[in-house]
């Protein structure tokens, strides 16, 4: 089975721009979660999607948004980029059964975003 | 709060045993995960504990005490390739994982 894939792997943007990142989960997985990883804060939960619906959301501003398609692929968007948005953005997939509780999440390689 | 606390760095010798501790707030607990992350790579799943006790998986074992909000990851027969960050994460509602900042383990010859 192919793992979680993310595109693009690297991205450079300037302040004020917006960016869209893509994630394709493991085949058969219906839950996709997004995380931001920075050296100072570690991995922080952004949001989780299951069956095209956002089921849970972390403490990030509304500039961070996402969506999920009927094939379970997910995108996240960051608008009005700030320097502090420079980070590794990871997505993770899991089957999404039983409300997603206690499921092992499998991570993709991440998209490294640099905001100048 | 949701604080997950683990040591920032540890150093150990090849062939030895190392224990990485993790403490967490017990509210909203739905299991404790350990992930390994090599520099520049994605986190990979190591273990999951939801009941008290020790889970052994080859050279790696993980322990959980729910009443104490405490877990540890035990690595035996350390190898150089075990040099990585080890991430402790508390499972919450609907696939929300609360991560600690990770423990950077350096294995020396």
List keywords for this structure.
heterodimer; A: 116 residues; mainly beta; 7-stranded mixed β-sheet; 4-stranded antiparallel β-sheet; 11 strands; B: 109 residues; 6-stranded mixed β-sheet; 5-stranded antiparallel β-sheet; globular
Provide structural commentary:
The complex is a heterodimer of chains A (116) and B (109). Chain A is an all-beta fold and 116 residues long. Chain A is 0% helix and 52% strand. Chain A contains no helices and eleven strands. Chain A has strands spanning 5-7, 10-13, 19-24, 31-38, 42-50, 53-57, 64-68, 74-78, 87-94, 106-107, 111-115. Chain B is globular, with a radius of gyration of 13 Å. The mean pLDDT of chain B is 93. The interface between A and B is medium-sized, with 30 and 24 residues.
The largest interface is: A-B, 30 and 24 residues
Overall form of chain A: globular
- The total of helices of chain B stands at 0
Q: Overall mean pLDDT score of chain B?
A: 93
Query: How many extended strands of chain A?
Result: 11
Concise summary:
The complex is a heterodimer of chains A (116) and B (109). With 116 residues, chain A is mostly beta strands. Chain A has strands at residues 5-7, 10-13, 19-24, 31-38, 42-50, 53-57, 64-68, 74-78, 87-94, 106-107, 111-115.
What is the topology?
The complex is a heterodimer of chains A (116) and B (109).
Chain A lengths: L4 E3 L2 E4 L5 E6 L6 E8 L3 E9 L2 E5 L6 E5 L5 E5 L8 E8 L11 E2 L3 E5 L1
Parallel strand pairs in A: 2-11
Antiparallel strand pairs in A: 1-3, 3-8, 4-5, 4-9, 5-6, 7-8, 9-10, 9-11
Chain B lengths: L3 E2 L3 E5 L4 E7 L7 E6 L6 E6 L3 E5 L2 E6 L4 E6 L8 E8 L5 E3 L3 E6 L1
Parallel strand pairs in B: 2-11
Antiparallel strand pairs in B: 1-3, 3-8, 4-5, 4-9, 6-7, 7-8, 9-10, 9-11
């Amino acid at each position: 089975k192919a793992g979680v894939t993310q595109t693009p792997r690297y991205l450079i943007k300037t302040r004020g721009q917006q960016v869209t990142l893509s994630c394709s989960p493991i085949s058969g997985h219906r839950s996709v979660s997004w995380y931001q990883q920075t050296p100072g804060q570690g991995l922080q939960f952004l949001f989780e999607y299951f069956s095209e619906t956002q089921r849970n959301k972390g403490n990030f501003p509304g500039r961070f948004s996402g969506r999920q398609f009927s094939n379970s692929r997910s995108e996240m968007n960051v608008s009005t980029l700030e320097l502090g948005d420079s980070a590794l953005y990871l997505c993770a997939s899991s089957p999404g059964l039983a409300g997603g509780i206690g499921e092992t999440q499998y991570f993709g390689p991440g998209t490294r975003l640099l905001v100048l | 709060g949701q604080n997950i606390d683990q040591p920032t760095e540890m150093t150990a010798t090849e062939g030895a045993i190392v224990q990485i501790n993790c403490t967490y707030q017990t509210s909203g607990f739905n299991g404790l995960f350990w992930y390994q992350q090599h520099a520049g790579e994605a986190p990979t799943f190591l273990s999951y504990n939801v009941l008290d006790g020790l889970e052994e998986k080859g050279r790696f074992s993980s322990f959980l005490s729910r009443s104490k909000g405490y877990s540890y990851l035990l690595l035996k027969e350390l190898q150089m390739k075990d040099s990585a960050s080890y991430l402790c994460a508390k499972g919450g509602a609907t696939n929300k994982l609360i991560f600690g900042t990770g423990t950077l383990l350096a294995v020396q010859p």
